[in-house]
UniProtKB/TrEMBL annotation:
<keyword id="KW-0804">Transcription</keyword>
<dbReference type="GO" id="GO:0003700">
    <property type="term" value="F:DNA-binding transcription factor activity"/>
</dbReference>
<keyword id="KW-0805">Transcription regulation</keyword>
<dbReference type="Pfam" id="PF00126">
    <property type="entry name" value="HTH_1"/>
</dbReference>
<keyword id="KW-0238">DNA-binding</keyword>
<dbReference type="InterPro" id="IPR036390">
    <property type="entry name" value="WH_DNA-bd_sf"/>
</dbReference>
<dbReference type="InterPro" id="IPR000847">
    <property type="entry name" value="LysR_HTH_N"/>
</dbReference>
<comment type="similarity">
    <text>Belongs to the LysR transcriptional regulatory family.</text>
</comment>
<dbReference type="InterPro" id="IPR005119">
    <property type="entry name" value="LysR_subst-bd"/>
</dbReference>
<dbReference type="InterPro" id="IPR036388">
    <property type="entry name" value="WH-like_DNA-bd_sf"/>
</dbReference>
<dbReference type="GO" id="GO:0000976">
    <property type="term" value="F:transcription cis-regulatory region binding"/>
</dbReference>
<dbReference type="Pfam" id="PF03466">
    <property type="entry name" value="LysR_substrate"/>
</dbReference>
<protein>
    <recommendedName>
        <fullName>HTH lysR-type domain-containing protein</fullName>
    </recommendedName>
</protein>
<feature type="domain" description="HTH lysR-type">
    <location>
        <begin position="1"/>
        <end position="58"/>
    </location>
</feature>
């Protein structure tokens, strides 16, 4: 049995396209077509029905796909196991982050523990970063995951952080230590875009207290939100660590009456694909995260 032919079949069956399958395997379309044809001829079966550019699995093809799924899952598991047994952790890890104050200390610890590692880093909101993780565009992420949790992902708590109000240094509220949520909502509220876990948390909080801001503006950037607040364009609700040290900004504790502190807390997670969490690079990142003190 030719494993290369099975791999080609599996790619075409998975993508339902010879072109997409060829791109995924980095080979030409004529090559992948020839491999599949040889497999069909060797066992005198028809694995696909061709309809122009479309391909549809035959009954033989559907049954074989179930087998090749298991075959290549075991192959991937074997590779991950062998990687996890390697004593030296080297290579390149692709990291996704939601906010620099949470992910940068982990990367610093990772570099200290494994100076031979290189890394790439991409930032985005939680929704976008988790999509990259599921598409295998990144290896691991540090984000404030919002529910519902994806069963394909592994989540490990990194740190809990509290929500605070953010106002300009010359705002009338800036001289206070804390602010009532209802009073804050009398101002224009600047919030992140849809897909942001912070926005999801704020919306849940407002829904729980039964209050709605009179004026909301959406800004698609954490730094842009802070700059807008500093310029007096409104107020915001952010995580404590994200406020940074800016003399133009003042953070205030939020007073929400008798509501549970859980509603004012966001949890930052280290997230990876469950099927890859035992790879040496991912294990090294988790270890660095456990050794990092964020707050």
């Amino acid at each position: 049995m030719n494993l290369s032919q099975l791999r080609c079949f599996h790619a075409v069956a998975s993508y339902q396209s010879f072109t997409a399958a060829a791109n995924s395997l980095n080979i030409s379309q004529p090559s992948i077509s020839a491999q599949v044809k040889r497999l069909e001829e060797a066992y005198q079966v028809e694995l696909f029905y061709r309809h122009g550019r479309r391909v549809v699995l035959s009954e033989f093809g559907l049954n074989l796909l179930e087998i090749t799924r298991q075959l290549f899952q075991f192959e991937e598991a074997a590779q991950l196991y062998l990687e996890s047994m390697a004593q030296d952790v080297n290579g390149h890890v692709r990291i996704g982050g939601g906010s620099p104050p949470y992910v940068m200390p982990v990367i610093a610890e990772l570099q200290k523990l494994h100076p031979g590692l290189t890394f790439g880093l991409e930032f985005g909101n939680t929704k976008d970063i988790l999509a990259l993780l599921l598409d295998n565009e990144i290896d691991v992420a540090v984000v404030p995951a919002s529910v519902p949790y994806d069963p394909r992902l592994d989540y490990e708590v990194l740190v809990d952080d509290s929500l605070v109000a953010l106002v300009a240094a010359d705002h009338p509220l800036a001289s206070e230590d804390r602010v009532d949520l209802g009073r804050l909502l009398e101002e224009r509220l600047l919030i992140r875009e849809i897909g942001s876990a912070t926005r999801v948390t704020i919306e849940k909080l407002l829904d729980r207290v039964g209050q709605k801001p009179g004026n909301i503006s959406t800004i698609v950037s954490r730094e842009a939100v802070k700059e807008a607040v500093a310029c007096g364009l409104g107020v915001s609700i952010v995580r404590n660590l994200e406020t940074g040290k800016n003399p133009r900004l003042v953070r205030l504790k939020l007073d929400c009456g008798e509501l549970s502190d859980d509603l004012l807390t966001m949890t930052e997670y280290v997230v990876s694909l469950k099927k890859k969490k035992d790879a040496s690079l991912i294990k090294a990142f988790y270890h660095a995260a456990r050794s990092t003190r964020i707050l």
